[in-house]
Specification:
224 residues, alpha+beta, 5-stranded mixed sheet, two-stranded antiparallel ribbon
Length: 224
């Protein structure tokens, strides 16, 4: 990183000057290159970042490869910094939500879930337990599956909801295939969860499915 007394170093398509005013207009590779500035000269950083994006196809692909330790073709700093950046974002969202901020929109929930589930290579079924004002009480990974799916038991979800004294629940799981469309099994388990929680006067607010593209809110589709 440059300090205030040093001029910004430039290479074609890349400047090491402050990014504070323009991070939103940078492409993914350029942002990754800025993370790498602590490890290598600017030109090498941009080349490494562009090569990593080309090799893995997308940020999601890079995150998944890094989390799985499958970035052997990259310089170690690339995937280590990607993992660190992702973990910092996840912790920042956790901190905000577990300190009493309510989940008030599908967009906020999707941001949270993408960081928790978007990079997973196995199916994970996650439950967010909420109080009467939709503030997060707890976020628990309840079921872990193979590449093909996870067995979900409504009784276990209901027991956790009672333990947390939850008034409402949001559930979510990832599709490692990348396709977020709800399957018939997804629809069936959603109905069973809604019925089981309803007997306890606990609302099932939504069931999100996270893939490599746009996540799906089953509530927004009228499936709850």
């Amino acid at each position: 990183m440059t300090n205030a007394s040093e001029p910004a170093m430039t290479v074609p398509g890349f400047s090491t000057g402050s990014i504070e005013a323009r991070p939103g207009v940078m492409d993914d590779a350029t942002l990754i290159a800025h993370l790498l500035l602590v490890t290598a000269p600017a030109g090498a950083c941009l080349a490494q970042a562009q090569a990593a994006m080309k090799r893995h196809g997308s940020l999601t692909g890079l995150f998944r490869a890094a989390a799985a330790g499958k970035c052997a073709a990259e310089p170690g700093e690339v995937y280590e910094l990607v993992i660190a950046a992702q973990e910092l974002l996840r912790r920042q969202l956790n901190e905000k939500l577990l300190n009493g901020q309510a989940l008030t929109s599908p967009a906020e929930t999707i941001d949270f879930l993408r960081l928790h589930l978007g990079h997973r290579r196995r199916e994970v079924f996650l439950c967010i337990f909420l109080d009467t004002r939709h503030r997060v009480i707890s976020c628990d990974n309840l079921f872990l599956g193979s590449i093909d799916g996870a067995s979900v038991y409504p009784r276990v979800v209901a027991e956790h909801a009672l333990r947390h004294n939850a008034a409402a629940v949001i559930v979510a799981h990832n599709h490692p295939s990348g396709v977020a469309e709800p399957s018939l099994a997804d629809q069936a388990i959603t109905r069973r969860l809604k019925d089981a929680l309803g007997l306890l006067e606990i609302r099932l607010l939504d069931h999100f499915i996270i893939g490599s593209e746009e996540p799906v809110s089953m509530a927004s589709r009228g499936m709850i």
